[in-house]
Amino acid sequence: xxxxxxxxxxxxxxxxxxxxxxxxxxxxxxxxxxxxxxxxxxxxxxxxxxxxxxxxxxxxxxxxxxxxxxxxxxxxxxxxxxxxxxxxxxxxxxxxxxxxxxxxxxxxxxxxxxxxxxxxxxxxxxxxxxxxxxxxxxxxxxxxxxxxxxxxxxxxxxxxxxxxxxxxxxxxxxxxxxxxxxxxxxxxxxxxxxxxxxxxxxxxxxxxxxxxxxxxxxxxxxxxxxxxxxxxxxxxxxxxxxxxxxxxxxxxxxxxxxxxxxxxxxxxxxxxxxxxxxxxxxxxxxxxxxxxxxxxxxxxxxxxxxxxxxxxxxxxxxxxxxxxx
Amino acid sequence: xxxxxxxxxxxxxxxxxxxxxxxxxxxxxxxxxxxxxxxxxxxxxxxxxxxxxxxxxxxxxxxxxxxxxxxxxxxxxxxxxxxxxxxxxxxxxxxxxxxxxxxxxxxxxxxxxxxxxxxxxxxxxxxxxxxxxxxxxxxxxxxxxxxxxxxxxxxxxxxxxxxxxxxxxxxxxxxxxxxxxxxxxxxxxxxxxxxxxxxxxxxxxxxxxxxxxxxxxxxxxxxxxxxxxxxxxxxxxxxxxxxxxxxx
Amino acid sequence: xxxxxxxxxxxxxxxxxxxxxxxxxxxxxxxxxxxxxxxxxxxxxxxxxxxxxxxxxxxxxxxxxxxxxxxxxxxxxxxxxxxxxxxxxxxxxxxxxxxxxxxxxxxxxxxxxxxxxxxxxxxxxxxxxxxxxxxxxxxxxxxxxxxxxxxxxxxxxxxxxxxxxxxxxxxxxxxxxxxxxxxxxxxxxxxxxxxxxxxxxxxxxxxxxxxxxxxxxxxxxxxxxxxxxxxxxxxxxxxxxxxxxxxxxxxxxxxxxxxxxxxxxxxxxxxxxxxxxxxxxxxxxxxxx
Lengths: 325, 248, 289
Fold this sequence. Notes:
The complex is a heterotrimer of chains A (325), B (248) and C (289).
Chain A: H1 2-30, H2 33-58, H3 67-84, H4 88-110, H5 115-135, H6 137-140, E1 154-156, E2 159-161, H7 166-188, H8 191-201, H9 203-207, H10 213-239, H11 249-262, H12 269-287, H13 291-305, H14 309-322
Antiparallel strand pairs in A: 1-2
Chain B: E1 5-14, E2 17-27, E3 32-36, H1 43-51, E4 58-63, E5 66-67, H2 73-79, E6 81-84, H3 96-107, H4 122-134, H5 150-163, E7 168-172, H6 180-196, E8 200-204, H7 208-214, E9 217-222, E10 225-230, H8 232-237, H9 239-246
Parallel strand pairs in B: 3-8, 3-9, 6-7, 7-8
Antiparallel strand pairs in B: 1-2, 1-4, 4-5, 9-10
Helix pairs in contact in B: 3-4, 3-5, 4-5
Chain C: H1 3-34, H2 41-59, H3 62-85, H4 93-115, E1 131-134, E2 137-140, H5 141-163, H6 165-175, H7 177-182, H8 187-209, H9 219-234, H10 239-260, H11 267-278
Antiparallel strand pairs in C: 1-2
């Protein structure tokens, strides 16, 4: 499959990616500040959804607690920036390392469970993280959260880059998200990624191929959680103030919708889904108070009519066309 | 010569039911053994114990002298015990190519590569293609397994077993659900594995024509225990076997 | 802690447990028979509570609401099963969750549309107002009524499943759909029936819970999460499991607030995590193959 597809689609895909990147680089030149801010948040959510989907679409594990790693990345970075030192690089590292550690600890227990039990245990841990962020006032600011997180300059050697401006932070986000998405894409195409897909398809059988299935699940869990942490780390200085609601389970449900909308079995599906989700929410909530009716109806329609998501549907059509059926 | 696989008083109970009851068996290297017996005799449980899917209540399993009783399934596979399942047990939405590729990667210990592109591993590519050729599915390598016929799915199963290069292969009803022609093909294939590759084979099979034509040795199980063990002609003449099969 | 406080908190826990059990048993029953994880159960619960408000408002009788609100919920359940759930039987659990979560979102906003966002209260029948002596403590009559109803529902489910012809058909359909079909059982009808019964239980839970708390829009999600926790602790598909799970969570909620009120919201999650780490399929759960 890889062979034929790479010959026919390889070039087109290269041009597609190049074109998309060019468009993303040009965004601040053509769009208003309001839209650039919106695009920055969209990029962060794209990373959140794509890293979530490594566990969901690729490994077949539905987590209801991924807001935990997102918010630990955000709180770690935010706390470091506002209380310790205004070094963006160190702050990001702190947030990411913390989400890595927490993902490892939680994942260690969760990957032993399957299906709904897995989902409920991730929910349980996610809500414990929420309770801690909410109630540990002295550290996290309690229900008010962290307010006034600085967005400092970024210095490498002699060069200093300004990130407090809207386009500045947009570009920082674009670079970080770009690198992370590239890494995730490579992981999805690696031997490790193929093992994850086979775990999704039939996790009991994988053990009988001589593969220590749980370690691979844990690996996927940790990678997924850590990159959610990167998204959170970017989110804290972007929003400037964060509150415990980013760790509530409704936040964990967002990447689930995004992945489903775009398609869980196509790598870029959740990216499309995240963009669409945010776009729809912006449009519909500007037009009516009752945006959940629309979201609910869309969700029901997708499950019944388009379970492969938008990209899944398109790629099925393309494949069918190529096979001449 | 030391047996390649040995069970010592192997026992598995589910509550009061003794699914496998103090079974002690030796399997010689290169031998093709069939295990037969009525439904519920404990054949599949015995396979599950050997392959690590279920854990023994008592007794020991030794493979090439090592105690493997408590090992996880993946560790047992790495020691060289492969298994083909009774019900086709593949990765339905992955292609034939990928289904065979995963065990190749596993055997070559390449599965933990995180960032290298999968298709760049040349020896894995070659090995996968070679096995697809052996099972005659090169033409269908891009088709997902759930779109294959039942017979082709069984072929993929055998490809998976080949990819693991086992020393000992457990086959759970390899001809189940096959027509006469497919059955003959499968018999030829299993015999080839045994004779040309010197793979020790243990087989659970219901088709007596297959069992008596292919086996070096036949073991008869009944209610969790072994009631007869010998060459095919000895088994054919055994009174207790007739009773176990016909008495009920 | 003195005796009176203990009894008071124990009975509070039991009241809480019984409303939880009525909801959770419906959820578990639907899963056990249809293999559908129905998040919309929370919506049916919330609708039961809001119908209770509406019916007592219109007809001035709590008893009227108690009888008819669950029936309306059962009717809505039939519609949901027939038009939304039936087309997708056998799909992956993830998609079931998403589909039924879509229903939750829809219903939440519909309730907002009809009843608005302000808190509403429902008062119980006058007969059940006031307190009476129980285990030597003065305790609200209504709470005792809820406890009795919970136990009654437990017996009702047991009786229906094990002693009636319909119950036998339900059990046959839940253990093997095809065999049941071969025996001449109309499996789709059994499914609809079970879903409707589950919806009736959810609605009943809603009516019973209504006088105990104020009605608000978060009721559906809050309840379904609690009910799920209970069902997962007990083991999916197990009615006795749902009973034990409800009891544990009810008591934990009651006594936990006494000692660690700060982290109250985390109680049930800690309980669930501990149970799942020790028993990956819940206390009475079977493996889902």
